[in-house]
Design goal:
mainly alpha; two-stranded antiparallel sheet; 6 helices; 2 strands
Length: 119
């Protein structure tokens, strides 16, 4: 669950600051907050356990702007538990204003996060 919420925050911040998506997959409003379904299905086998770090991760494929954004999102939001992040997303319009099971509009995500981040 924590990975899902961190991905949500990274996407929202990136849309707000750079007006582009970090990834093409859609975020959906699920019961416990925003979820990227493909990410959920990839990692659901770990349940509530830790996800092992990938062995072949090559961070050099990301430009410095993206790496800095991901580091900053993790520094700000990574300190919170999965449940705290879930509760936080439930107070935010992108999830709150999207019916459960529906896609969260990138425009709504961008517009909300523009009110939350300082460029």
């Amino acid at each position: 669950m924590k990975l899902q919420k961190l991905v949500y925050y990274a996407q929202g911040v990136n849309l707000a600051l750079h007006d582009r998506s970090l990834f093409p997959q859609s975020l959906e409003a699920w019961t416990y907050g925003p979820v990227v379904p493909e990410l959920f299905h990839t990692y659901k086998r770990y349940g509530t356990g830790a996800i092992p770090p990938p062995r072949d991760m090559d961070f050099s494929i990301y430009d410095s702007q993206t790496r800095e954004l991901l580091d900053e999102v993790y520094a700000v939001f990574g300190q919170f538990s999965a449940w705290m992040l879930s509760n936080m997303t439930h107070e935010e319009p992108p999830w709150k204003d999207t019916p459960v099971g529906s896609k969260i509009s990138p425009d709504i995500l961008r517009d909300y996060f523009k009110t939350q981040v300082v460029a």
